[in-house]
Amino acid sequence: xxxQGSLQEVDLPHIVDLARSMGDAVxxxxxxxxxxxxxxxxxxxxVHAEGPQGERGExxxxxxxxxxDGSFHLEPGRLPPTRTIQRPWNAVLLDALRRLDxxxxxxxxxxxxxxxxxxxxxxxxxxxxxxxxxxxxxSDIIGAAVVGIDGLIYSANFPRxxxxxxxxxxxxxxxxxxxxxSMKQTQQGTFVxxxxxxxxxxxxxxxxxxxxxxxxxxxxEVNLGMAFAEARTITARLEEILKGLR
Length: 246
Fold this sequence. Notes:
five-stranded antiparallel sheet
């Protein structure tokens, strides 16, 4: 059974996430005034993409991200004609979003009242409320998001309106992937959290469940001990929400 919808309602990362949950082989087709893009998902991985101007592979993914008008539909059971994408989806998405960010092209649609996603609306609202409560009570965490390890955004609340939620989610997913591999290679167990320091503040990435991570933005003059404690508290609350315990 095929699934279809409007590109004004669902962006590409969410569409791909839907396709990855539909079966072993799914084709994602974007029909727009600029032409048609087709992405092929096989066993949960995006393995090939084609664009209307002859783009292939990761280049086609990058151009597909700016598609805003038109429709999409998913066709289960359609096998890829070839395989031009070898890297994980979150790495491909991260590079594509970075490229768009450098060129100034928009990488996400205008805000809308409701954003379709894999989790039920009730759960999504609870996650948003948990983040709102955290930011209202904390002076050590000034921005927060909950994202999947594949870059899917569950909820985001950042102080700056020009923050690209999709880009932050992709970066966090890439950080998680690298950190998880580092822990395994050094035999230090499973990933718990990582802290990245910049000149103007920090980004904290902490595991919520094996498939979901919490992202916190911290100011430069932060009490890291308090921030870590608050991160432990919020991730415990988020885990209960995701498991349907509250």
